[in-house]
Write a structure and sequence with these properties.
Blueprint lengths: L1 H27 L2 H21 L2 H9 L3 H9 L9 H17 L3 H14 L3 H20 L3 H14 L4 H17 L3 H13 L5 H14 L5
Helix pairs in contact: 1-2, 3-4, 4-5, 5-6, 5-7, 6-7, 7-8, 8-9, 9-10, 9-11
Amino acid sequence: MKWMNTLIKYRLWLGIFLLAMAIFVNYQTSFWPSFILYLLAVVLIAGHFLFGPMRLIQSHMEAGDMEGAKKVVDSIIFPGLLIKPMRSVYYTIKGNLAMVGQDFDTAEKHMKKSLELGGGALTKQAEGPNRLQLGMLAMQKGNQKEAEAYIRQAIRAGLPDNENSAAAYLQLCSIMMNKREFRAAKEYFRKAKGFKPTTPQIVDQIKQIEKYITRMPG
């Protein structure tokens, strides 16, 4: 909702304004008439530092505005104050933005930080995609053993949609092809196709693998 995004964007400044008003009312009268202003100020200021502007970042990312998302992420000066689930999401987003910028080492560092935090429903939702990203990063570095371990962990943790699931099984298929375990490669390829992905990159990858997989033994 637009009003919620506006509140999140300006809640720190609104909280500071209400705190100043509370101090003024307290000075002019007494504590109790200013109590509600103090309470609102504390809620807004604490909310800014404990929960952060994650909703704003999500809105930018859903709109494909990575520059806007990066500006909001960079505005978080004290990520250590965020509650654990929000801190995990923060590092996940930092990792995703680093991936977009082709900074794979930084992406890996942030994804691992997110996983290390653990716990909480939000963190659990991000665990599968995070492990899948780490698997793909390991593939980029040519570390197939680590890639396979992360991708299997991602599948066990759960992936949010058919696109991610198809990508995971395609990566496993590629790993099995390189290991010359052709029967397993075919099985993972069949599973990947079964998710019926629509992302052009994944569809193209399926077409490329399909040219070779039917010629394999097993």
